[in-house]
Amino acid sequence: MKSLKQEVSELIYRGFDTNIKIAVTGLSRAGKTAFITSLINQIQHLSTHDNLPFLVSAQERRIIGTKRVPQKNIMVSRFDYDRAMSFLHAEQTQWPEPTKDVSETRLAIKYKPVKRSKRLLGKSLTLYLDIIDYPGEWLLDLPLLELNFRQWSEQQVSLMKGKRAGFAKSWLEACKTLDLTREADEQQLASLSSVYTQYLHDCKAGGLHWVQPGRFVLPGELAGAPVLQFFPVAGEVPQSDKKASSRHAPTNYDLLSARFEEYKSKVVQRFYKEYFATFDRQVVLVDCLTPLNRGHDSFVDMQQALIQIMQSFRYGRNGILTRLFSPKIDKVLFCATKADHVTPEQHVNLVNLLDQMIYPVWQQVAYEEVEMRGMSLASIQATQAGYIQESDQQYPAIQGDTLAGEFVTLFPGEVPAKLPVADYWQSNQFDFVQFKPQQSIHGEPLPHLRMDSALEYLIGDKLR
Ligand SMILES: Nc1nc2c(ncn2[C@@H]2O[C@H](COP(=O)(O)OP(=O)(O)OP(=O)(O)O)[C@@H](O)[C@H]2O)c(=O)[nH]1
Ligand SMILES: [Mg+2]
Fold first, then answer.
1. Is the pLDDT assigned to residue 11 strictly greater than 60?
2. Is the pLDDT of residue 328 over 90?
3. Band of residue 362 on the pLDDT scale cut at 50, 70, 90
4. Which one of 3.40.50.300, 3.40.228.10, 3.30.390.30, 3.40.50.10610 gives the CATH number of domain 2-134+277-383+439-463?
5. What percent of the chain has pLDDT over 90?
6. For residue 320, which of 2, 48, 72, 338 sits 20 to 30 Å off, Cα-Cα?
7. Does the C-beta of 232 come closer than 6 Å to ligand 1?
8. 133 Cα–ligand 1 center, Å
9. Which residues contact 104 (CB under 8 A, 6 or more apart)?
């Protein structure tokens, strides 16, 4: 009788939401690794420390215990939490290394439910949390699905203006040697692809993040694969003659176009089907401060990239995403990261700035019933906030060790509350200095700003 009761209870239990997949993304260097490292660390200390006061279940002392458990998808790299922590525990602390691919980790949180329906199932339940780290650049490829090779080429080449024109020079020059109508020369296409990929890398190094195809700059396991060996065609495009091309061997143009189509189906669609469609909630991390440091072009470009990224959360009834992949993300959290780089009274401006950058798309997404929120946070707080006293005046300041190891106290500048216009940079200088993380103590949670509010938004309802 007891085992029957147990079985029934397990059956009902399985029907309950006990598993949640949270994906974390952002353009490179946005702070993904730091965020996930802190998230794991904060959760690990949840039942023993008061490190997350705004996580309601923790505040109500309903968290019984937490642990890291083996991840479900064994085909994906494990998020290397221990390595990241080893950098933060070292005497000479360092930030964790850059990462290039998808990785995953799983946590179990045992808690006392408050919901009546859940309480019927037992005094304690476990929420399994799958956390996935993937490059935001991969989301920049979504619009490709609705373009053919010719349209995509025109679009990419027309973007090569201003700063980009300078970066694209070598590639445009190299393309002059390519005859699109001749029999395909794989060697030549591979070498021109690598010049094109270098152009994309140069854009990124120059602070321009809106690059396509996004996988070219972060290829992960596809590095060197022919599916990443194509590029847009500049100038005159040969008219396609289907009869002729079925009689002859494929031309350079045919091969480029075929690879573009393969890339769409085998790389872009596969990512959306196998990963994206399985996510329940999404965190998008945005570093607003580096583009402010770099100036107008970099700032506008980041906004463009963000708008592109947001297209992935616009499902609509007839949208391409819904038709192809049935995504199920119901909440998206946008975070302006590294908030400890600026003084606390600037945090409101940081959130306003983020909100305004994504506002045009935000409105449509809200209409489509995906809940969204923007906030500022520091995953791993590296500075202390305080005041500088000058004669009888007090000024806000932050204090910490710079990456070069120099201890400084400074006011890094005001974050604009509105989207800055082009000449804004002439009268405003930003100098957001980078800081070293403080040495982390074994057994103590990492210092943070608002990781608890982020977690309450992401999993609070699942811990009720
Ligand atoms: N002060 C401060 N700096 C941070 C914080 N989070 C990230 N950073 C800085 O931003 C850099 C990039 O952070 P990562 O977490 O490695 O960013 P990522 O998005 O994983 O980068 P990739 O793996 O290269 O795509 C770090 O090396 C730090 O310098 C934070 O909370 N506070
Ligand atoms: Mg990383």
1. no
2. no
3. confident
4. 3.40.50.300
5. 67
6. 72
7. no
8. 13
9. 71, 72, 73, 76, 77, 78, 79, 130, 131, 132, 133
